Amino acid sequence: LKEIPKTMVVIGGGVIGLEMASVYQRLGTEVHVVEFADRICPFLDKEVTTTFQKVLTKQGLKFMTSTKLVSGKNNREKGVELVVENAKGQHNLKCDVVLLSVGRKPFTEGLDLSKAGLEANKFGKVEINNHWQTAKSHIYAIGDVVSGPMLAHKAEEEGIAAVEHLCGEGGHVNYGAIPGVIYSYPEVANVGLSEEELKEKG
User: Fold this and answer.
1) Is 118:134 a contact under the CB 8 Å cutoff?
2) Which of 4, 24, 76, 83 is least enclosed by beta carbons within 10 angstroms?
3) Per-residue pLDDT reduced to its tens digit, 142-180
């Protein structure tokens, strides 16, 4: 963006959406966050997300949870018109800029998977076994093109483990100990399963 917008709607109350919402709010933009789930960052402990949202609300961010985007119209210099819907019905929102931040997907274009005798599944990911081997056992896949969090440090650990496996030394990644962080203000970090996930597992 060439200038700081006066108003912005962020679609998606996850990591990237909240990081950008937090930045622009501190730069003076009025920011609304629209989240489909009943709370922001549902992968975190409920207690953490509740406190996090209260802090961000106190800073000036506005939240609409349990809300979905129905439609939008880009009027270029005249801004964007959105229709969102929740239990109270449909609502119209107008803003200068919309940031669509509703998930990421693997980028395999240019890898020539078919030439290697491989293909991506319906989610665009390459299937692997427990040792990062693809359907062609001499080809390994790691990082953003396989299942799991799309984090550089997760990919790095998988790369090390895959090479260890190639060398006959086993190779292991403890996926339950991969940390995550939201670079908002304040920052929020997590590692392992959430309290709710642990309770579900007994």
Assistant:
1) yes
2) 76
3) 999 999 989 999 999 999 999 999 999 988 999 989 999
Whether the Cβ atoms of residue 12 and residue 35 lie closer than 8 Å to each other: yes
Question: Given phi > 0 = left and psi -120 to 50 = alpha, else beta, which region is 93?
Answer: beta
Strand, coil or helix: 23: helix
Whole-number Cα distances in Å, 198 to 43, 77, 176, 195, 202: 12, 48, 11, 5, 6
- Relative to beta strand 89-95, strand 30-34 is unpaired
Give the integer Cα–Cα distance in Å for 37 and 12.
Answer: 9
CA angle (136 as vertex; 132, 141 as ends), nearest 5 = 30
The per-residue DSSP string of 49-100 comes to HHHHHHHHHHHT-EEE-S-EEEEEEE-GGG-EEEEEEETTEEEEEEESEEEE
HEC sequence for 44-62: CCHHHHHHHHHHHHHHCCE
pLDDT tens, residue by residue, 185-199: 999 999 988 999 999
Indicate the pTM of the whole model: 0.85
